[in-house]
Amino acid sequence: MSDPTSTPPQQPAAPPDPPAAAAAPEAAPLPQPIADALPEPGDVNTSNAKGDGLTKCPRCGSAEIGPVPGTDQLRCAFCRFEWVAANFMASVGFDSPIDQLQGTVRTTGVADIDQSASHIITIKCQGCGAEVVINTESQLQSRCHWCRQVLSQQTQIPNGAVPDAVLPFRLTHDQAVEAVRKFASRRRMFALKRFKQEFVPENVVGVYMPYLLVDGNAHGDVAGHGEIKTRQYQRGSDNNKTTYYDADVYQVTRSFDFTVDDLTIESSSARANQDTRMNTNNVINTILPFDTKNSVKYDANYMGDFTSERRDLDVDAVMPVARAQMLSIARQKATDSTRYDRGIRWESEQLELKGTRWVAVLLPVWLYSYYEKKSDGSAFLHYIAVNGRTGETMGSIPVSVPKLLLVALTIGTVLEGIAIAIVANF
Q1: Of these four, 10, 243, 326, 391, which has the most CB atoms within 10 Å of its CB?
Q2: Dist. CA 109–CA 284, nearest whole Å
Q3: Which residues pair with 159 in a beta bridge?
Q4: Do 93 and 359 form a contact (C-beta atoms < 8 A)?
Q5: Rg (CA), the chain
């Protein structure tokens, strides 16, 4: 029995078959994962040929290019021509069926990071010949100090700074500010006084966050026990009544193929460090999903005035997270295929990855941060995050514990008074 209050039923000598949709054959020995043993078919070259760092307007040839707020377009500042970079997935054939994947496919932007590689990149301006230095730890664009042409780090480099694709900001700064303001306003009653005094939603900043997208061709094997309720009854009297359940218990196994499309994995160690004692990094993942199918081929001109973070985690480092999330998907798919009204207790789970393909992408997030200094000398970093595509908002604010206790006591007193009044009426 899965319910601690249930009365264990007598196991039928020959239990009836469960409902047809839940029937399953006896499980064969569960296979061991073999993903690491699969052959490597080789990387997909997604590098950008623009080694001079100069992207020109397709109409007039100007290098004065920037993103158009609220759209996926780029705009030439000289002739005002607008265009959208090519869809990344279609351009490299990653819109092909996932269930045909074999082995591990990695793009150029996903190649293992060379920690010894320099973050300082020198680009020779094709306009005047001057050499321009870009620090890829903090920026992917710069302007020639002589002729003012905008130069960008367009080609993939081994330190992980340049991804394969970018999903442009769709939400404007004003829209993000309003979303942050509404989120904080609903929680002002419990917020620290200092936070309310220092709250300036206009300080929200746009950041391109590094992620790895993975498609998976997988096979799942799960086994456990499911329960079908046969009887429910009560024992005791007055206020001492206890509810009991009787249920038939069945062995359940599932073995099936499934695919995972664009699973989104953190690729920045700073953001992946979700230590809830120190920060609220976890709020970033609560604003998922992003419409990653609309990602375009990386072009640094989409950076505009936005900042970005650099990927510093390789595929091998994030693989345990990817496997855990795919196994969770497999478990849910198996559960959805059954009709056991008392649920299923899965006791054995295995995941076999037949094939995966990986893409490095920058995703748009609006962020408001607040650094709380606590009375004990410790510090905590609060974030309010807004999905730069959908406007989905989540975050945390520092709260006043005395206010929370006061509200809790007040609500408790009111509920107690209501209970007394109800009893008195009887």
Answers
A1: 326
A2: 22
A3: none
A4: no
A5: 28
User: Which stretches of 47-172 are DSSP H helices?
Assistant: 88-91
What span, in angstroms and rounded, lies between the C-alpha atoms of 213 and 288?
13
User: Which has more confidence, 355 or 52?
Assistant: 355
Burial of 104 per CB tally in 10 Å (0-12, 13-18, 19+): buried
State the CB neighbour count (10 A cutoff) for residue 337.
13
- Cα 173 to Cα 67, 196, 318, 364, distances in angstroms: 13, 21, 32, 12
DSSP string of 348-371, one letter each residue: EEEEEEEEEEEEEEEEEEEEEEEE
Among the ranges given (20-29, 105-114, 145-154, 236-245), the one the predictor scored with the smallest mean pLDDT: 20-29
- Alpha-carbon distance of 372 to 279, in angstroms, equals 10
Q: Which DSSP state fits 402?
A: H
Total Cβ atoms within 10 A of residue 348: 11
Nearest residue to 361 (alpha-carbon basis) of 227, 265, 260 = 265
Model pTM score? 0.76
Strand (E) or helix (H) holding 269: helix 269-272
Distance of alpha carbon 244 from alpha carbon 3, whole angstroms = 9
According to DSSP, residue 301 is labeled: G
In contact, 391 and 174? CB cutoff 8 Å? no
Measured in degrees and rounded to the nearest 5, phi and psi for residue 105 equal -110, 125
DSSP states along 142-209: EE-TTT--EEE--S--TTS-S-SEE----S-HHHHHHHHHHHHHTTGGGB-HHHHHH--GGG-EEEEE
Structure token digits, residue 356: 């995966």
CB contact at 8 A, 139 and 172: no
Q: Is the peptide bond before 289 cis (omega within 30 degrees of 0)?
A: yes
The answer on pLDDT for 178 being more than 90 is: yes
Tokens of 273: 């460090």
Find out whether 63 and 143 touch, Cβ atoms under 8 Å.
no
Residue 409: which pLDDT band, with cuts at 50, 70 and 90? low
Q: What is the pLDDT of residues 264-275, one digit of tens each?
A: 999 988 887 777
